[in-house]
């Protein structure tokens, strides 16, 4: 009995080494893997989800001190002034060409009305063809103009900013948690890393298995004394090892030194969760492998499964932003649990006491997915 | 270039595609399915932000104030808690993303003409949503402050409430939204999806085309034949470009028919731009296929060259205008960005060749450069 167990282990080890060798000897593949885990994540450092230097052009029909004062409040970082225009047609043309994001239109007699206490209307035209930018630009310009009006009203009553203590008003004190500067520089690379892990965990095992079918080497494996488990497990183990190594490289060479991501939680827990996730997701890869006869099919099937998983998992939008029907299907995506735990451990410093339900969800789902993948695999390769 | 030979090669490639039933089906099903799933599922509207309230004052005014959040469609009320300490686990577990803390003596201070500090705690994990949430809070506070100030003015100076309201808000803002008046993010997303799907699906179709022949050895038939390099590449690419053009029409139909996106621009211009764009994206797949020796490597290289840049550098989730110069430079290296502008311009803005010729030209140059690189990299007498 004991010798059979040793034999089993040595076969497993030999097959795992074979898979790893096959991977390492493919120069371009190694390049792509290393690139995805390092350079690709490094490239996200330029990406911001915040309004940044959006161009505002101004049509100023008043040319007074008051209108100038208002115009100069459209400043970086959110806005930058793109110059003055003579009529609204010119503004429309600039918006059409995408040269400006908003047009600020100040009416004649703006200053006179302001001083005499008559209400006056300032118009802002916003390009909302991209709703994310459009909404932000609209809300920020609304804030700037509202604030200006508020101060003008206080000034008329003889109260200045300094004597605000005598006016009843709510003073906002915002505190942003976990990411105090609302640093995209933390959010984006982490979601990128989780995406890369997902891509690899599906594509590498799928490719490793389909390749054997396509090239006919599966025949050799079938006549060997290997059981289906011994064909399948080494593929999963070797790919998981590669992904874990890539994750470690990415974490310690890119995320921490370049982006300054704080690792608030436990690292062993993070890697344990990553292992669980990778193994669970590789079940999907094995499932794809059993459906397809060649890699071209496998590749199409892989993006068919990958893209919805990545986009609808919360990597880019949190669950509460999903429409009602789809929110429930998110619970079927292993990436959803992985993201909850990934952000939780790295940024929030959460431990198992908070994350146990996500871990349970991932485990159950993982057992399910992996089980189905293995079952189909055994039937085909057994 | 011998057209008959190109046609023969394209025919051979086409037969290979058609005989692989599953692949042929996936070539058309995958783009349409991605469009459907994302069109319905991907929402960038910041609504239903789950939040909790800590009310240390429990007065009529504090109830009035917190109800502005509870009644807002942007926030989902999840209950009151007793103290700030109880908020920690809720935020850590993502049960709430926002909390508002009303201090003691809130009503007393405001009624006595003194300011009161209200604290809002926001989960910053999703920065775009955090800044939008903050903007909502500021807007609600500004409205509340305006009313407080108007009431104060009317009490202190003895003017009528309407006059006091005008005095408190001397400048009114009229916001006009162009191109997408109702701020439907579906319109933006469905338009950008045409770009995204055509960036991802065609390269994956093409990516294995050449390397498959290298792996199976059938490429030696080509090496030994009279077919020239250019003819081989053109024949390889044509069927995939054809499939992708059909897909671009299907995506267009889904965007306008199913998601109700208006198409205001020039159909012919948009069609021609789409043809150039899919030539670019299939070209990327072809290039990946030429560089590598194994199919797995071609797949991963295609991921590197398509999925990642199309997400980051296309303007779908991340506006290009808000990147720093280096990021903008990197964005200009990928074709996705130009086509996003063309798609948004054609669908929503109703502009055509006159405004967008520069972007179309950039795509054409991109396609030409890809073609030249592929041509230079493909040899009928490989060194190994």
Description:
The complex is a heterodimer of chains A (382) and B (384). Chain A is of the alpha/beta class and 382 residues long. Chain A folds into 2 domains: 232 residues, no CATH class; 113 residues, abc type-2 transporter like domain (abc type-2 transporter like fold, 3-Layer(aba) Sandwich). Helix content of chain A is 66%, strand content 9%. Chain A has a 4-stranded mixed β-sheet with strand order 2-1-3-4, with helices on both faces. In chain A, helix 8 runs antiparallel to helix 10, helix 8 packs antiparallel against helix 12 and helix 14 packs antiparallel against helix 15. The longest helix of chain A is centred in the middle third of the chain and has 32 residues. With 384 residues, chain B is an alpha/beta fold. Chain B folds into 2 domains: 237 residues, no CATH class; 120 residues, abc type-2 transporter like fold. Chain B is 67% helix and 9% strand. Chain B contains 17 helices and 5 strands. Chain B has a 4-stranded mixed β-sheet. In chain B, helix 3 links the parallel strand 1 and strand 2. In chain B, helix 1 crosses helix 11 and helix 2 packs antiparallel against helix 8. Chain B is elongated. The two termini of chain B are 27 Å apart. Chain A: InterPro entries: ABC-2_transporter_component, ABC2_TM, ABC2_TM_bact-type. Chain A: Belongs to the ABC-2 integral membrane protein family. Chain A: It is a multi-pass membrane protein. Chain A: Its main location: membrane. Chain A: This is ABC transporter permease. Chain B: Its main location: membrane.
